[in-house]
Description:
Elements: H1 3-14, E1 21-25, H2 47-57, E2 62-65, H3 70-73, E3 82-83, H4 97-107, H5 111-119, E4 125-128, E5 133-136, H6 144-158, E6 162-167, E7 170-175, H7 180-188, E8 197-202, H8 208-216, E9 220-224, E10 233-235, H9 238-250
Parallel strand pairs: 1-2, 1-8, 2-3, 8-9, 9-10
Antiparallel strand pairs: 4-5, 5-7, 6-7
Bound molecules: magnesium ion.
Function: Removes the phosphate from trehalose 6-phosphate to produce free trehalose.
Keywords: Hydrolase, Magnesium, Metal-binding
Family: Belongs to the trehalose phosphatase family.
Amino acid sequence: MTERALKDIALQFGSLDLDRHAFFFDFDGTLAELVDDPANVSLAGELAGDLARLSARTRGAVAIITGRHRDEVAPMLGDIPVAGLHGSDFPGDIARTDQDAVRMAVIRPLLPALADLVAAHPGAILEDKGAGLALHWRGAPGAAEVMSRAADQTLAALGPDWRMQHGKCVAEIRPVGDDKGVALRRFMAEPAFADRRPVAFGDDLNDLPMLQAARDFGGIAVALGERDLPADLRLAGPAALAAWLSERLAA
Ligand SMILES: [Mg+2]
């Protein structure tokens, strides 16, 4: 991208028009700082209120797209819609229940061995995502290799209907098909988002389809943190995002 184009985007970002843009946020590492145990996550100070204000001022053109279960983060976010499990847990979906039941039945038998493995590495965590699972080792950095290997073996046992999603100190296994880009497109088809330009914020590899989808709609991709994700703009982390949002709302 030329220097000129970058400058244009930076200007655009500084004066984002709340009547013409839509906003999509990943949760962990984007709105909330990463923590050793994902269960202990929280939103920084003013952020929940600022997101609610952003949603009100954009007339509802704000959504969260996370790898977590929707129910884990939705209570922190008021009326803002949340797509969970990378989009496969989309607000209003009920038709997939049967499919999820089949997926869960396939995953169940593999959990006990992984639970034993995690128990042998204090600080490591097995996250049961229903139709998927994640191994976390932020709290057990020495176990990175053994956790990665276990994830690879689990994926091999599950077969081609499943895929691996690597992230920061996490390996996640989930069904092939949905990703965060699909979720962004689905939101963009809804009246509150349609005809706006999406601005997407993410910090990890699982956000790439969402960042790309935002660009495909003529929008802006914003990367957070140290990962070298392809993006139009960068912010240092959740605190920088919260500061930007608060400043933008005050303008
Ligand atoms: Mg993230």
